[in-house]
Amino acid sequence: MRRETLLNLVIALALLAVPLAAQALDEPFAITLATKVAILALAGVGLNIALGLGGMVSLGHAAFFGIGGYMMAVLATPVQAYEPLMTWPIELAGTKSMPLIWLGAVVAGAVGALAIGALSLRTSGVYFIMITLAFGQMLYYFAISWPAYGGEDGIAIYVRNGFPGLNTLDPLHFFALAYAVLLAALWLAHRLGGSPFGLALAGARQAPARVAALGIRPYRLKLAAFVLSGAVTALAGALYADLNRFVSPSMLSWHTSGEIMVLVILGGVGRLFGPVAGAALFILLEHFLGGISEYWQLFLGLILLGIVLFARGGLIGTLAGREVPHD
Amino acid sequence: MTDPVLEVRNLHLSFGALKATDDVSLTLCPGEIHALIGPNGAGKSTLIGLIAGNLAPDAGQVLLNGRDVTAQDVAARAQAGLARSFQVSAVAPGLSVLQNVALAVQGARGGSFRLFRRALSDRALTGAAMTQIDRVGLTARRTVPAGDLAHGERRRLELAMALAQAPRAFVLDEPMAGMGPDGAREMTTLLDELRHEAPILLVEHDMDAVFRLADRISVLVSGRIIASGTVAQIRANPEVQTAYLGEERLE
Lengths: 327, 251
Description:
The structure holds 2 protein chains of 2 kinds.
Chain A: H1 3-24, H2 28-53, H3 62-80, E1 84-86, E2 92-93, H4 98-120, H5 126-144, E3 155-156, H6 171-194, H7 196-206, H8 208-213, H9 218-244, E4 246-247, H10 254-267, H11 274-292, H12 296-310, H13 314-320
Antiparallel strand pairs in A: 1-2, 3-4
Helix pairs in contact in A: 1-2, 2-6, 2-9, 2-10, 2-11, 3-4, 3-5, 3-9, 4-9, 6-7, 7-9, 10-11, 10-13, 11-12
Chain B: E1 6-15, E2 18-28, E3 33-37, H1 44-52, E4 59-64, E5 67-68, H2 74-79, E6 82-85, H3 97-109, H4 123-136, H5 151-164, E7 169-173, H6 181-194, E8 200-203, H7 207-213, E9 216-221, E10 224-229, H8 231-236, H9 238-250
Parallel strand pairs in B: 3-8, 3-9, 6-7, 7-8
Antiparallel strand pairs in B: 1-2, 1-4, 4-5, 9-10
Helix pairs in contact in B: 3-4, 3-5, 4-5
């Protein structure tokens, strides 16, 4: 077995073991932390499809994270207010069912990413970073001035949405859901990486002129990857909103985009389990350093600086060595 | 005479006051190697850019199999059967030799939007790729990342990728640049075989190779073709000797 595969397995099992141990020790807060790791990792897996596979440095992925979160609010608030979702042109009820909310989030995230990506991908380099940032901020200010969902204050969903056969209010059950979705997304990312699509995308990232000369247009490949990326991150947003039972514009702010990117870089850009390792490290730092000092992000910054300067492959790269072309 | 596979008609391109391409016309016929030579800065790379579609001409046409492709982009011309290699190797450094060539096969055949199949367990894809890898002699290096290849190996990978496109015409930009004498000799033999698959427009500085391989030679100086003809004609042309071959002898 390859060293990285082994490392990935260890990380996956460790993330599963923490909440089980916490349950045995009766420490529900640790389960919530592990759930947060799984959900942020999912957002990172989404970003990594754009950033790692496609080489698209998007500083606007909070847009998709927030779209997922707000989709949850849009679908679930009518139910808690005993109102229909819409009455025209057809009467449609809201839903408290997670599978339906996830579907809504994925579709909304994909549509959002298609619109933002179609325009942003006409630029490259620093302009791409800036334009994705600008789109993210546009949605952020839109949410702030959208009174129906609490504007700047956001909106609370009092009861966590349901999943058939599970009690989602039980932290362990909810963790299991988030973990299963994360594994599914990792499987998707893995398949993408080894597919003809992933091969063309890697070529477009590493040698764009050559790929065009081979008869493959990089624009459409990148757009497709950006859409998939946005959809996965939106799904993470819906889960994150359910974890907190609260949605606010901060999910859309560029700080959130930055956090998702930071955790991908911490773990390893383009590495399958990079976002998982990164999210775990991020949450651990936030929890323990945050307990020591209010200024924990200063230390996060120093660690990030160290990784960017000395360990370009992030945590995974440091532990598993450089990436080998998989065959 | 058979119809040319690639034809360039009265191409013009200026960058400001500089006429980089000045009324260039040339043809590439089936089975031939047409060499394009000229001193540095003569506009060879500009002409290749115009043919491949990286640059748009101010005036003139590029025809591929008799069809005007002047308005088409790089990818469309590649799909129409134009394979080019790059002067400075442009291979994906993080992908293996096999993956790079498989990518070229995929470009020619389509299917880059298959999201869930495993690319390298596709027999048709890897089979076609391995055929070309064997031909250029990189079989033992197939799993090595292209970025780790030695210079000469990377030039051969360039060629394997162009071959894998199963093109109608090759445009090869200095395929022997930076190769040792042995490598250049092997490459010459390989190119000599290649002409039977598709004609080659060969830009090359290695005069021994050019004189050995070329059926016709065109000499480009300051954006203009000053002479065009067989090897013997070009060697005997006094204008060419002063403009170009003279310099070579002084070296």
